[in-house]
Amino acid sequence: MISLTHYLVLSAILFTIGVAGVLMRRNIIIILLSIELMLTAVNLNFIAFSNYVQNPVGQVFVFFVMTVAAAETALGLAIVVAMFRNLETVNVDEINQMKG
Amino acid sequence: MGLHDVMFYYFAAVVVVTALLAVTRPNPVHAVLFLIPCFFHVAGLFVLLKAEFLAVIQILVPAGALMVLYIFVVFLFNLYDVKGIKAAHRQSVLAGIVAIAMVLMLAVLAVSSIFPGPFQELAVKTAGDNTAVVGGALYTTFLFPFELASLVLLVVMFGAMVLARREGKE
């Protein structure tokens, strides 16, 4: 029988894959994708708990998280486009103009 | 093992495998394309959890609109041909250790947590179907955050246009 723990462990694995992606990759597009994965893991947690405690408020919160995720993607990609125009790179190691 | 269990393990396996492939492929086009089945199967998990409304939204927004946006940007700017982008980061080993420690810690927390027993199968259906319940909460208790979310999207729309605009070309 599938319990809440199964969903929590799956969500933990998904979140960690996102964290590993952010830490290991140099391509800023993949880093944005990894952030998307982490948000999805959080959404899965919210919905699992919403089902578990029989309360729809968790699903309303997921709705807002998805709104913010869409906003984050649109702004993040706009920044990537502007950055690629100015610096001709998407490698996060080469973006160090603000370094002291 | 019932149908619910089989479906859970199928969805979970596909989600984990496609997510791993998405963060490990050198080519960002492949990464984006692997994330699409990943999000579709997350929507399947939402259906198993009786959140049908959010399952549809999950397919429409993250799996549909956002992935198309990623593919547009990757294609328009030829981002997969930049030098030095494909190699793994030099902190990869340390990052891998941190990630494994983190997933073990979270899994131990989840397994030893105080939430006993299986789900009740009746789920959130006190006031009709799932969409009616979520919509009712959204338009009554959470009306102000809901309107604020639309304002956030409006600001983001203008912000993205300003950021991505080409300077000095009228």
Structural notes for this entry:
The complex is a heterodimer of chains A (100) and B (170). By secondary structure, chain A is mainly α. Chain A has one domain (4-92): Helix Hairpins, CATH 1.10.287. Chain A is built from three helices and no strands. In chain A, α1 runs antiparallel to α2 (28-52) and α2 (28-52) packs antiparallel against α3. Chain A starts with a helix and ends in a 13-residue tail after the last helix. The model of chain A has no long low-confidence stretch (mean pLDDT 89). With 170 residues, chain B is an all-alpha fold. Chain B has a domain at 1-87: Up-down Bundle (Four Helix Bundle (Hemerythrin (Met), subunit A)), CATH 1.20.120.1200. Chain B contains six helices and no strands. Chain B is globular.
Overall average residue pLDDT of chain A: 89
The string of secondary-structure elements of chain A, in order, is HHH
Q: How does CATH name the architecture of the domain at 1-87 in chain B? A: Up-down Bundle
Annotation, overall tally of beta strands of chain B: 0
What would CATH call the class of chain A? Mainly Alpha
- What is the CATH C level class of the domain at 1-87 in chain B, in words? Mainly Alpha
